[in-house]
Amino acid sequence: MTSQEFTDRIAALLPVLYRVCASQFREGCDREDAVQEALRRAWEKAGALREEAYFDTWVIRILLNVCHSMQKRKRRFLPEEAMPERAAPDRAGDRALYDALLMLDERLRTPILLHYIEGYRVEEVARMLGTRPGTVKTRMKRGREKLKELLSGEEIRW
Question: How does residue 87 score in pLDDT terms, banded at 50, 70 and 90?
Answer without folding.
Answer: very low
